[in-house]
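Figure 3 (text version): structure tokens given as input.
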């Protein structure tokens, strides 16, 4: 066995001690560095494991409604994006914001988050891989919607913005492509030929997934023993423009019509608290409904979730029977709500014997407090009967 000299042993021991001390010193420097430069959103004390998880979740998404993020849109989003000619077919392409902001927009405030650990959580906002130097692939950007909505990411995506579209400013403009001399009126029922302004509605709103002449009336296949239970039917909703393509037809650099395409904040408004909707995500999931437009529209249905636009008695009505189009502003949920007086036009009668569906539901609830009003509603039917419904029935009785 080879003997180790005292000098050699001492030398080895000193090297080991130096390495250990270096490790402690390095760890101390890192700790000191972190404590001297805390993120303004984090506590000054050492975070608990739970806090670590909260921070990880926080930096995994970008929230526009945070005070620090309420900047001019152009601060981060450059118009047009470098890839605007590639995301749409060449003949359909137009200057647009079609890509995430560049790193400089984030680094101004989040340098610490960018260099935290081997896989910074903040990178997952845009990148499919949390270590971009190895794989810089990004998630699809939410615009163009016609592309984004087909992606897996779109299923759980909820925008921070509502699009402000003032209908009163567009009714006559859109109608002018047809009969410009007409103005919008609140006619109750459709007359021979479309009522004034009615043709402007159909420019942007079509019956979504209509049943047409098909015998298949449901959006997804219902159970064999459905009976009278609810299952979403085709032709329930109407379409609406979902991206810039329709808007930029008129609002472009060529036409000069304001707001200009790069004036994002004119149309994109931070959402206000939404009104309760006659919608239950669990019910939609049980039906296998996955189409984003259906879920988004149904999730905003603030009145009767079962109202089907394609049903023949509804299809014969003017849009203005239910919608006060001239006052409708899409970013304001109160102006979107359909009042019960519109429903009462057909569904409230003097008595239940006269055939009013609203009367039957209300009378049934009076007899049985556990009765659920399911003729029109998906979830609202479990709630107390609103005074507006009782007033509508009383008003119908006065007309007898």
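Below: residues designed for each position.
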């Amino acid at each position: 066995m080879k003997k180790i000299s005292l000098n050699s042993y001492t030398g080895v021991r000193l090297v080991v001690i130096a390495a250990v001390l270096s490790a402690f010193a390095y760890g101390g420097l890192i700790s000191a560095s972190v404590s001297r430069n805390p993120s303004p959103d984090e506590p000054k004390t050492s975070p608990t494991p739970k806090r670590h998880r909260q921070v990880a979740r926080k930096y995994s998404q970008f929230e526009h409604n945070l005070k620090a993020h309420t900047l001019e849109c152009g601060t981060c989003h450059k118009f047009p994006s470098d890839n605007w000619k590639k995301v749409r077919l060449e003949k359909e392409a137009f200057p647009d914001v079609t890509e995430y902001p560049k790193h400089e927009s984030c680094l101004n405030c989040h340098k610490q988050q960018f260099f935290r650990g081997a896989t910074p959580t903040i990178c997952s906002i845009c990148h499919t891989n949390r270590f971009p130097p190895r794989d810089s692939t990004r998630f699809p950007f939410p615009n163009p919607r016609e592309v984004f909505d087909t992606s897996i990411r779109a299923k759980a995506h909820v925008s921070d913005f509502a699009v402000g579209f003032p209908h009163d400013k567009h009714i006559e403009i859109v109608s002018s492509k047809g009969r410009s001399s007409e103005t919008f009126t609140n006619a109750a029922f459709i007359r021979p030929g479309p009522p004034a302004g009615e043709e402007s509605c159909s420019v942007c709103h079509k019956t979504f997934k209509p049943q047409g002449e098909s015998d298949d009336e449901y959006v997804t296949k219902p159970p064999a023993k459905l009976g009278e239970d609810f299952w979403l039917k085709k032709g329930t909703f109407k379409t609406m423009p979902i991206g810039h393509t329709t808007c930029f037809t008129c609002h472009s650099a060529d036409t000069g019509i304001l707001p200009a395409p790069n004036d994002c904040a004119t149309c994109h408004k931070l959402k206000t608290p939404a009104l309760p909707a006659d919608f239950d995500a669990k019910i939609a999931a049980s039906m296998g409904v996955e189409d984003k437009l259906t879920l988004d529209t149904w999730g905003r249905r603030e009145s009767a979730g079962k109202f089907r636009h394609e049903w023949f008695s509804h299809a014969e009505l003017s849009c203005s029977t239910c919608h006060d189009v001239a006052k409708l502003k899409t970013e304001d949920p109160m102006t979107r709500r359909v009042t019960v007086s519109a429903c009462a036009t057909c569904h409230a009668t003097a008595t239940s014997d006269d055939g009013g569906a609203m009367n039957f539901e209300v009378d049934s609830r009076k007899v049985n407090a556990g009765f659920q009003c399911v003729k029109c509603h998906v979830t609202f039917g479990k709630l107390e009967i609103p005074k507006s419904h009782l007033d509508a029935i009383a008003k119908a009785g006065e007309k007898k």
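The chain has a mean pLDDT of 81.
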